[in-house]
Amino acid sequence: MAACNPNELGFDVIFAWEDGKDDQNQNAQIDGAINRDDITCVICLLVLREPVQAVDCGHRFCTKCIGEFHLINPGKCPKDWQDIQVFPDVGKKREILSLKIRCKNFTVGCTWQNELREQKGHLEKCGYESVACQLECGEFVLRKNMQNHVDTLCPIVFPCEYQEFGCTFKGTKMLLNDHMANNMGTHMSFEMKYQIQKVKDEFNKQLTAKNQEMVRVKNEMKQLGKDLEKIKTTNEELVEDLKAKGKQIGVLTERLKTIEELKEEVEHNEKKIEDVKKEIDQTLEKNNKDLALEINDQLQEKCNANILMHQKIQNNLKELQAKLAQQNKL
């Protein structure tokens, strides 16, 4: 479809029945049916693009043309300066896009003719369209001649395709093609040397990495040896400490045994005291009250002394048990 872009001015076209010359009869009447003035913008004087029509005066303009005019002269007709309002003229747009035109390049050989709406699509592939060199040398050539220009005429210099392998040749496309055709053996030699060097570089890279890994492992082994010596020394110290603790435990065990024996002796003495007390109690019943009281006082003192001794022994026993428990924790 033709480009109906409101950001552009009118169409500058040559109709199929025109020969491109500035002929007044052709300008006034198109094919004897359509008046050129009826499809021409009164501002840009080109064929209407996205036409709009003014209410009352009936003049037609391109959408972009009247838009720019109204930025300076709001609401005015540029032809008769009446106050106007404009609306899209869809019928006129369809009529204009249906008109047959020649390619703008018909003077240099293009024979294309079709409706105006097809113009943009044609120009994008027209062989007679002048376009910039695709290699950006700065020259403009016909699209149909582009390949020949690139291959034989373009002054842009290209490096050899085997540049990365060591070839230093640079030249135009044509010279480059000749160079590629005449130096296949040299290029193969370049590539082979490059690949061999690449393998060597990769081998050296891996060898360096392996050496670095060996150094790292060696350092780690050395450090592990030092750590092992530290552990060995620590273990020896722990063994000596355990031996000392064992001796202390032995001493405490003997003390505990002695305390247990003393405890048994105290219990045995207590039993004897109880037995004696019973005997005394029986004797007191036979003696008078005063004698009984005297004896009872003496016995009470002895009992109290034994109780104090027993408590002292119990306290010593508890202290030794606490020390033994603390040594066992260590």
UniProtKB/TrEMBL annotation:
Metal-binding recorded as keyword: yes
Domain of life: Eukaryota
Coiled-coil segments on the chain, per record: 200-286
Entry-linked SUPFAM superfamilies: RING/U-box, TRAF domain-like
UniProt keyword list: Coiled coil, Metal-binding, Zinc, Zinc-finger
GO biological process, one term: regulation of canonical NF-kappaB signal transduction
TRAF-type domain span: 122-168
UniProt keyword annotation of Protein transport present: no
Zinc finger (TRAF-type): 122-168
Residue stretches making up the RING-type domain: 41-80
UniProt-recorded Gene Ontology molecular function terms: zinc ion binding
Pfam family, one: zf-TRAF
Protein name: Uncharacterized protein
